[in-house]
Amino acid sequence: MDGTVAMWAAALQFLAAGLVGGFCVLEWVWWRGELRVAGAAWTLAWSGILALGFAASGTLLLAPVGVVATSLLFASAQLSAGVVIVALPATKAYTSGPPVRWYVVVAGAVLTLRAALWLGTDLVVRDLPGSMQAVPGPLDGPLLLLAVAVVITYVAVAAGSVRVSGIALLLLASAALSVVTLVGVYLVAPQSQASLLTALWPLPLGIGLELLALHRLRETQRAARREHLMRDATARISNAAWFLTDPEALLVRARDESRVLLGDPSIEGSLRPLPRHRFVTELYSGAGRSVTTRERVFLMDLALVVSAVAERQELASRLGRAAATDALTHLPNRHALDEQLRSVIEQADVERTRVGLVHCDVDGFKKANDRNGHAWGDAVLVQVADHLRSVVDSECIVARVGGDEFVIVVPRAGTDQSLVELGRRIRDGLAARGADQATPAISVGVAAWTPGAIIDPDALMTNADTATREAKRTNAGVTLFDRALRIRVLTDARLLESLECGIGLGEFASHFQPIVDAQTLEVVELEALARWTHGGRTLLPGEWLARAEQSGLIVPIGRALLASSRAGLDRFALPVAVNIAARQLAEPDFLEHLEQSWGDGAWNQLTVEVTESALFDDRLDARAKLAELRSRGVRISLDDFGTGYSSLSRLALLPVDVLKIDQSFVREIGTDRGVAVLRAILALAEAHGLDVIAEGVERASELTALVELGVTRVQGNLLGRPSASLPVRYSQVRPQAPDAARRTHGASRTTSGSGEPGGARTGSNETVAVRPAASV
């Protein structure tokens, strides 16, 4: 080869090696960006081999003849063979053609044979006689062309089975030009031109590979930019999800974003519910266009955001309904009722119409629920809810505000009478509806808001609840909160406030009524009766006791009474009987409070009086407490015997020492029936070993008759009224002799009426005297 031509050829080879080597860096970046896909890897390998081949060929052109040139010639030939071999898997990666294994085996075997013959024979390369320059042998061209033919065959098969892109065609064209150049090496006779073509035949393929690298680099840049756009679009949809409460609107926005970004106006979206409050969203091409993996992931990300918003909104909706709805009856709960009631009253204030409120409470529900089980109770509540829905109009609001409490709000309500009739229909309808099963009755309270009144839903609820409690108390069934009830409630509230104030100021104390021996009229015991000194006057229990028991204030009042009774014991040195209310006895710490109020010791001087209702109501805890007191020496008295449950068969089981005959039986002592009842009570007490005290003795004839019947102890206004001090009176009057008593039994008579000192005037114009016990 001419020296100048060799220099230019070498320079061209080195330039090509530099360009291809530089593009290897870009191809490496492409390979990294494409997550190391096979096409990028084989392109990088192909370009690397070409760069080495160009460098070896350029060096060969400048190397002196000798061993170095021979070695460079062999290396260049093997690199050319590597270019041919790598063309097979590279084509497979670009075209997804058929399996390439056997093609590689055949081409590799041919090129391996060529390399072996090169080293062992002169059939591939031979030396010229008298020269150190090597020239191609007879098998060099055929073997190389045979390997190239294998590659061309595979390329034809692979390209014919798939659609080839423009850049792939360009690469195939450059490869074909390189093949033509290689074939020309063996067809051109002049040795100088053949050597030049041998050095330059990979150049078209290298140019094609670098154009492919540039194309891939641009694709990578576009893909990266598109990736950023997809991420930005996903972020925008995710941010919009916090502000758009309508999943359908968010789906439309996601669809529009994907249409613009993917350049496909046919993309559509769908949102479908699934079981368990889940949702599935789909974004797809309506034209059936196939999408890439990355596009599919992008559409799936947008769909997941829309589904998450739909599920979140569904959850928020369910939580909102749960917060405002009763889970059992599916009626509005108290929270929802407060808002709706205020809204209804405000609208009625504008329209100048009335608003009715009907409060319903199931009678005895707690006890029935404990007895029959919670499943029964739930069924009853559902039945009541269904009944209330069926009775009222659709305009009315039915709500459950408590365990067994229901409320009906009646907008544009009629008269009070119409509201009361609605309450009666509710009560009577439920009784008829549950005729075939044990359904508790309900008590109904009715209240109304009238235009011009203060907008106060809580006050209206309180009024209806008060009317319901009044209906329960009076067994009326349906009660209207009217002016009279309002006055009673206000009076009751003032009384309750005064009671609380009186307890704090220590206004409660004991007044003592004597219990006397029926024969000698000696005071043998005192009964402590609670009196309330308030506002300059003393109030009897009939004016405040019922409210104190209902409110629970009877407990601190009872403690004050016990402390005052202990002071009376210390003052008068007489045993004291103290009334204990059922509410006080039911307190868990009753015994502790009694010990604190009564003090230590003197238990045998204390008698605890309880009513029949406190013992005959199966309150085992009350009986146990009384049994504990008896073990300490306290006597237990059954007060007002005969007016309560009067279960005589269980009397022997009770921890009782004394029976107190109620004054209603004493009033009847002038009749045969009354005498028979008293004799029965006395016989019963004797059979059980109980003492008897007759209370409420107002006439001397009653005292005489009781003595004749054998009653040993009596008390009443005839014998001494309750007082803060012990009544000490002397008189010569005694119970009549039995004969005289029989002659005057049942009739009123007047004693001497001389006004002897210490005489006590009774309501029947009879006078009797009481003596203190000898210890006083």
If you had to describe this structure to a student in words, what would you say it looks like?
With 776 residues, the chain is an alpha/beta fold. An eight-stranded mixed β-barrel has the order 10-11-13-14-15-16-17-18, surrounded by four helices. A hairpin with a 3-residue loop joins β3 and β4. α4 (101-120) runs antiparallel to α5. It starts with a helix and ends in an 8-residue tail after the last strand.
Q: Which value, in Å, is the CA radius of gyration?
A: 57 Å
Number of strands: 20
- Please state the oligomeric state of the protein chains shown: single chain
Approximate shape: rod-shaped
Residue runs with pLDDT of under 50 for 5 or more positions: 729-734, 737-776
Distance between the termini: 158 Å
Largest sheet: 8 strands, mixed, barrel
Q: Helicity, in percent?
A: 55-70%
What class, by secondary structure content? alpha/beta
Strand numbers in spatial order across the main sheet: 10-11-13-14-15-16-17-18
- Content of β-strand: 5-15%
What is the mean pLDDT?
79
Helices, by number, come to 26
